[in-house]
Predict the 3D structure of the following.
Amino acid sequence: MNGLGPWLGVARAPFLLLPVTLVVNGAAAGAWDGPWNLGRTLLALVGLVALHVAVNVFNEVSDHRTGIDHRTRRTPFSGGSGTLQAGGMAPRTAFVFGAVSFAVGSAIGLYLAWQTGWPLLAIGLLGAFTVVAYTDLLTRVGLGEFAAGLGLGALPVLGTAFVQDGRLGPAAFAAAVPSLLMTFDLLLLNEFPDEEADRAGGRRHLVIALGRAAAARVWAAAALLTPLSIAGGVALGALPWPALAGMLPTVLLGKGFGWAFRSPADPVPVPALAANVIWNLATNVCLGLGIAAGQLL
């Protein structure tokens, strides 16, 4: 491996679409509650991508150090990139890459807090804690999925909404709930293929703590709560009715629901893993576009 390949590998580049969709969602929610600021939205996007790169790289380094990624059966959606195991990059280089990415994201967050208000600092500090503590602490005490949902789901939406004009309205909180649930589910389903490797590496996520059948039902419950949370936001008047478009991608989860309720002891079908990712991205985008459409209708 040479060129950009190793860098994109340890950053898990295909997963970096997630923060882009979260910014779409958060910016639309912020603009529904008040004015929209393009410059701050773009800065938030760069900062969130940098922080997402950091958590991905730190996870790659930790899983290489503990041997987890040496034991996993890789899929396109789980098991790490394999970059460090293949010798494409030295672990120390990867760690420095992650640290620089974290510093860039943090610096942008501090600048935006200075520009828009220090409540953003509280959001940023909580998000930074989830980035730093996720791999070596939170995933070992049963909090990894919730931490991912919070730090890589709800908080980016709230932060992006806040930087629009320095306040948080009802739409921001309503838009953050489905993002929390979906990112929680994104991580949870991807943990099933890594169950044995994670167990050997000392992790204690929900698949290990609850067992496959119960964890699969938790995934299904969070998936079903996602469109219900959007409908609830509309019913309460926090979101405009076009935001109901965010419910539509739930139809992609048929294979996942079938596996969760009929055969959770079997490997998760790769199409279900793929649909879980697409559902996450598409829901954020559809929700954001629906909120934006509410400005015109």
Summary: The mean pLDDT is 92. The chain has 13 helices and no strands.
